[in-house]
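Hello Y.,

Per our agreement to keep a running log of every chain we model this quarter, I'm adding this entry. I've kept the format consistent with earlier entries: sequence first, then predicted structure.
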Amino acid sequence: MSGDGARENTILTLILSELFAKHCQKVVDKYIESEPVIICLDFLLLKQQAFRHVLYNRKTQGHWKLVAILLLCDAFTKLLLGRPHSTESYLRPDYMIYSALEWGLYINFSLALIELFITILIIIVCIRTISTEKCRPGELMRGVLLSNFGKILVIPAVLWGTNYSLIYVSLSRMFVCAANIQAIRVLSPGCHVSTCIMSVVLGHVVAMLSSIWIQNILSQVPG
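Predicted structure for the entry above:
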């Protein structure tokens, strides 16, 4: 009986793998039976098969919660980097709690939201305009949102090593760009790599320049 049960489980796994394969246009998804920890690690390593599994074969219902967390991380990072140079080099343990009461946190949250919106908009427009393979805008938006998870990694770096915060932020942005490119390559296989790189870089550069422009306007407002 145990042998029959194992055989039935194997057959069922093959059937499920074949069904999922029809959707992502690949032969077999090796992550069907993998643990979530393995999937997350391979996702962090920017493996294309892991991205394909997450974007096609895994239904993520709470990605908007992830977006809210990413925006909060981005806003808090901007708040830390925007501190005056005369401020203490170390952070008090209760700084994260009291930062929620600062008006600057909500301004930075709005800036992070604007940056994310501009980045996604430019990437979608570029891919839909240049690429011969038309990918759905909703899938591209979801892929870019999920591949922005690298912004979480900058929080410990900024908290533990404020002397090199700008370096950590730059590395984090490079990692996010690489993850965005990998997500677009998975969602739009017919899109050339150079097109993916150009779209992602253009989206992030325009978003960053727009944020700097808005910050300069806000700094000129008396108050």
